[in-house]
Amino acid sequence: MSASQGRRPEIIWTVPISGDGRRGGPQGWSRGGWHLDAAPVLPEWVNDVRGSAFTPFDHHVQAARAAEHGGFDAVVVPYDPAGEESWVLATVLSKETRHVGLIAEFPLGAMTPVYAAKMAATYQRVSGHRLGWKLALDVDPAIARSQGDFLDVTLRYQRADEFLTAARGVWSEQGYSFDGQHYHVFESGFPSPLSGHPFPRVVTSGISAEALDLGARQADVHLLPFDDALAGHRDGLGRLGSQYGRRVLVGLEVPVIAREDPEEAWARAARLFGQLPHAAGIGRPEHYRLDEHRWAGFGVLGLGAPIGLVGSYDEVAQRLRELFDDGVDVFVLDGNPHVEEAYRLGQHLLPLLGDFPVTAVPAAQTAR
Amino acid sequence: MSLDRPKSIDIYWRIGMGGDMASLRRPTRNRGDWDPTGPGSITPGLRDSEPDGYRYIDHMAEVARAAELSGFYGGLLPSFPQTDDPWVVSAALARATKTYRFMIAFQPGFLHPVQAARMSASLQRATGGRVVYNIITGGGGPAQLWWGDQVDHDDRYARTSEFLDVLKGVWHHRPYSFSGRFFQVEGGGLSPELAAQPFPEIYFSGSSPAAIDAAGRHADYYLSWLEPYAALRQKFDLVRQHSETIGRTPKFAVRADIVARHTPEAAWAEIAKGWEHVDAAAIGVAQARQGDSVGAQRASGFVSGSARGYRDFEVEPNVFGGFRVLRGGPAFGLIGSYEQVAERLDQLIELGVDTLILAGNPHLEEAYRVGEEVLPLLKARTLATV
Q1: Which of A131, A361, B152, B331 fits a disulfide with B37 by CB distance 3.0 to 4.6 angstroms?
Q2: What is the CATH number of the domain that holds B137?
Q3: Rounded alpha-carbon distances, angstroms, from residue B307 to A100, B283, B285, B289, B300
Q4: ipTM entry
Q5: Which domain holds residue B42?
Q6: Best residue of A2, A50, A100, A352 to probe chain B, by most B CBs closer than 10 Å
Q7: Mean pLDDT, chain B, as a whole number?
Q8: pTM (2 d.p.)
């Protein structure tokens, strides 16, 4: 999935799962069949032939293909109990794309580790080994209970550790048994042709001692918040990893507004802010500015992570390269509308992020 | 909004058939393989330094899907020597789309009409009746010779007319025989399975008297590039008068490129940025056209020969004649705020236009933008009086 020739960060895009659109704030994101009260309506005398021809997934697929064409390494399909189910969407996307890794986020209360491994084995066969698991660990307890998960919050990381251990066990061993606090498996394991595939790439997150410990023990990538404590958390994760003899990649979720020049980018941030339904109550966009490029207004705009980057393509690329030099290996980018922004960042930002070849592939001979 | 309006409007969105630009700000066509493939290229793109295996058709599919998801009726697939071919592209996209109508641009005579009928009927079967014709009769000059066509201007319209007679003939009659100046058929006629398909609607272009004459006989829609509105009205009146003499009622269609933004300033800023990359010497060259196209001559005539700055090409409010300089192709389009552009489109509908064929670069992103920001603002205020 990562596959870096030369030194460059891994870049992941985010697929919208509960609406997408061009405006600020998810209330106006009607693409994909969400928030239909906000959907643009054509005059009745314009022939609108869409009828029932399309499903919400037609839009989700457009976003994933945009990431694929834009050269992203992977897409993450987030967990949102009120949004599309991420395994189903990620599976559909696997047949609509060829290269991108597909990282489905899900909560561990949703299924047993054996069943998750079973679905993953089929997924790897369907997708050509492109599955990633992002564990939804920091779920609000009330929401977790609404999904049938009553586990005490303090035990979530312990359960996650067992979940991954058991899943890996049935994945790689015949006659595997496991006897833990949360899961019990007896003489399990996958026969051929389900066996022998690479285990899904595991993405964890969080900054509590338990979260960092879980990441260090079990994750391929551990996501940290894009705040001032980043360096400390990175070092802590690295130290724990060394104790376990593992190198865990450091990841960062970074929503982005990048344009040709900084003025354009900031003007867009302000415009999106102005489109929020309660624009008056949230203050001015400048109040969310943490430094020259770092902006904490993305959560208000409805994107997953609160803090991201605003600036010119060059500025944003410079910041990401600095972070890369400071030990961030993976960036999960986000921005709306997701199709257009994937194209934009793919064409203008990604080429600035690493050791891409300078020599171009010549164009076909054409009569111009 | 009038409920007793007798007609409804079809709105199409073009597919760029010769690659696409990331924006009008730079002339680089790094979508598709017309320019070299490098970092930031799309279809083919580079993945770990190697071409990613995608081809431009994959991007065209994205554009078509963006257009149909945004509410467009279909799109125009233009045809030029340096572009991909619209018949093949339509067939390739038939199963990748659901509602998108393929308005296939073609010049009668390059394909035999019987072959054109068979291809069309099969495409109708593949798409569920989503084929539309844009009959073009050629601009003459070197481009016409490039196609291997030496027939002169008025004769080309005679051939077009005959071509459509034969095409309809084999579709609707069996056995069908025809002996004309350009085409002969004996004992022809499509098989019943093919002939059962609906015959495609015909959009007919051409600004000369010969074109208007042929259009009167064959066109469902008389199609014009955008021109200054008074000129357009005059042209439509001419077509109406001619149609009346032969007892037909024409419908009208207009093609217009669009740059619409949330403010007029933001829209013109796109043009200003693009203009920075235009070679000043090339502006005059782009203005002067070779060939015998009356439409192209008309277009050149609307812009002063001394026009150099981009605002010189705004021949009337929001009507910009400089697209040919920025991206090639037709000269005229609309620049302005979402509201301004919607108002200008409303005025086209007031002029009697039944179909709008819109476009913008990059086609993918602008399909979403125009579909979501401009089309919902259409009011066509004087509908009741049309």
Answers
A1: A361
A2: 3.20.20.30
A3: 48, 8, 12, 15, 11
A4: 0.88
A5: 10-257+356-385
A6: A50
A7: 91
A8: 0.91
